[in-house]
Structures are given as structure tokens and as C-alpha cells.
Amino acid sequence: MKTLLLFIAWCILFVLSWPLAILALMLFPIIWLLLLPFRLIGIAVGGVFALIKAILFLPARLLGHRPG
Q1: How far apart, in Å, are the Cα atoms of 24 and each of 18, 31, 48?
Q2: How far apart are CA 28 and CA 66, in angstroms?
């Protein structure tokens, strides 16, 4: 659904200003590559937070608490 909305927005931009739409189409892969390290850092930080949560909740799980 997100891809379809993005495509419709690009089509509207193409009708209104085709040079800007072509420029956006050409710059999209470059911007995606520039933002890739930040996504990887976000995945790593999420993993660290999940590990900390698991360590903090380990005593409760050992005592038999089950999240409901």
C-alpha cells in the first residue's frame, strides 16, 4: 500500500513538474544508500535494548512469572 501511494505521488509530481520528478527518481537510490548505515545502527541499537530487557527480566522469568 505504501508503494502504491508513493507511486501515485510520483505520478502527480511528474504531471506537475517532470524535471523534478526525474531528478527525484535519479536521486532516490543515492539517498537510500546514504541512509543505509543509519538503518543498520538502528537495528543494532534495537538488538542491544532487547538484550538489556532480556537480562533485566531474567530473574522474574526464572521465578516463574509469565507475561500475559
Answers
A1: 10, 10, 35
A2: 46
Q: Is it the case that residue 68 has pLDDT exceeding 70? A: no
> For 38-64, what is each residue's pLDDT tens digit?
999 999 999 999 999 999 999 888 888
Question: Residue 28 is which amino acid?
Answer: F
HEC assignment per residue over 25-41: HHHHHHHHHHHHHHHHH
Q: CB of 45 within 8 A of CB of 37?
A: no
CA distance 44 to 37: 11
**Would you give the DSSP letter of residue 60?**
H
pTM confidence score: 0.60
Residue tagged 500500500 (cell numbers): 1
Instruction: Cell 538489556: give the residue.
Output: 52
